Amino acid sequence: MIQKKLTYCYFKLICRDGHPVLETQRTTQDIGQYPLALLQLPDFNKKENLIETKLREVGITPKVGLRADQLSICLHVVAQTDSILPCVDIFDADLPQGTQFFSAHKEHQLGSDIGALIPSKLSNAPLVKWLYREVRTVFEQQEKTEQEP
Q1: So what's the pLDDT on residue 10?
Q2: 70 and 87 in contact (C-beta within 8 Å)?
Q3: CB neighbours of residue 9 within 10 Å
């Protein structure tokens, strides 16, 4: 497998409208008080989600309310409870009514590279090279759009 960087992104979170965390400074400590609804990606985050690791690093025991492999289930739970769903800022889905995106306090934001995993045997295939360029172009155009006033 070959891993190639596509872009860098920040993490944001999803909660229900009127969630108590929205009335805080949204620090790691504030966010860590609430249960998490975690999207479990098969064969990717087998042990734990990045937010769990980061909470443990600052001495907070994560409260996992749900692990699911379907986004719709996670969003339903978030809409009905005080659970929080972490996602990346490139996640641009229509949220269910009564839910909203929010960001952690600037000093507490996490970011990460987003990459493509390409099987070694296919890494030089013209179709794979083309697809990688197309996906990267989409990310670059989105970054330019976000930087415009």
Answers
A1: 82
A2: no
A3: 19
Task: Specify the amino acid at residue 128.
Answer: V
Pairing status of strand 2-16 against strand 85-88: antiparallel
Model pTM? 0.77
Positive or negative: CA dihedral 56, 62, 68, 70:
negative
Q: Which residues contact 85 (CB under 8 A, 6 or more apart)?
A: 13, 14, 15, 36, 37, 38, 39, 74, 75, 78
Tens-place pLDDT, residues 97-111: 999 999 888 888 777
Number of other residues whose CB lies within 10 A of the CB of residue 31 = 23
Token pair listed for 37: 């609804």
Contact assessment for residue 23 and residue 100, using Cβ atoms and an 8 Å cutoff: no
Q: Are strands 64-68 and 36-39 parallel, antiparallel or unpaired?
A: parallel
